[in-house]
Amino acid sequence: MLHQELRSHTAEELRNLLTSSHAQAHLRRNGWGPGMPVVIAAPYETLDTVMGLVSIYDSAVLIGCYDPYFDELTLWHVSGTGTGDHNAREGQYVDLKRNEAFTFREMCQKAMHCSSMRFSPKGWDHAVRIREIPLFARSDRLTCSEGKALQFA
Q1: How many other CB atoms are there within 10 angstroms of residue 44's CB atom?
Q2: Cα 126 from Cα 90, distance rounded (Å)
Q3: Distance (Å, rounded) from C-alpha 74 to C-alpha 68?
Q4: Which residues pair with 58 in a beta bridge?
Q5: Exposed/middle/buried for residue 35 (C-beta within 10 Å: 0-12, 13-18, 19+)
Q6: Are 93 and 130 in contact (CB under 8 A)?
Q7: 3-class DSSP state for residue 40?
């Protein structure tokens, strides 16, 4: 898929989700709200580039990314400046350093091992929290104890 086609496909999928009352209820439970800015990311863009777009808004943002390699749409909630997320306990996060050239896909892969990540967008005086909004139950992200519980249940 070309870059423009990726964004069009992602925008179409997001529009379908945001017009569904069931999806809206699920997204609200995960931090989304009507009128929240949406940023569309391509998986091969650097995290710095995507977060640069996020930093324009100075509020919580929803990021949508369709990855054609995995044929998967992922949604991400990014905390805003007034949420207090930057004061949360250190142990809840994996820090993503600005000087590391992560692509958005690599950030998604790092997210498989933690519940949220922290990143400092250029020009902001604090870090933001990035966490995935689950769209379906993922068997590839179960911990060993959860996997064993499912096997023996």
Answers
A1: 14
A2: 13
A3: 11
A4: none
A5: exposed
A6: no
A7: strand
Nearest to 32 by CA among 66, 80, 85, 65: 80
Residues 104/41, Cβ–Cβ less than 8 Å: yes
- Per-residue confidence in pLDDT tens, the chain, 153 aa: 455 555 688 888 888 888 889 889 999 999 999 899 999 999 999 888 888 888 888 789 999 998 888 888 899 999 876 554 444 444 456 777 665 667 888 888 877 777 788 887 766 777 888 899 988 655 555 444 443 333 433
Q: In what order do the strands lie in the sheet with 38-41?
A: 38-41, 61-67, 72-78, 128-133, 117-119, 94-96
Taking the mean position of all CA atoms in its chain, how far away is CA 136?
A: 14
- CA dist 57 → 17, 31, 37, 82, 118 (Å): 22, 16, 7, 12, 17
Query: And the tokens for 15?
Result: 């529009």
**Rounded Cα distance, 75 and 61, in Å:** 10
Residues 1, 103 contacting (CB under 8 angstroms): no
On whether the CB atoms of residues 39 and 62 are closer than 8 A, the answer is: yes
Could you tell me how far CA 56 lies from the centroid of its own chain? 17
Question: Cβ–Cβ contacts within 10 Å for residue 119, how many?
Answer: 23
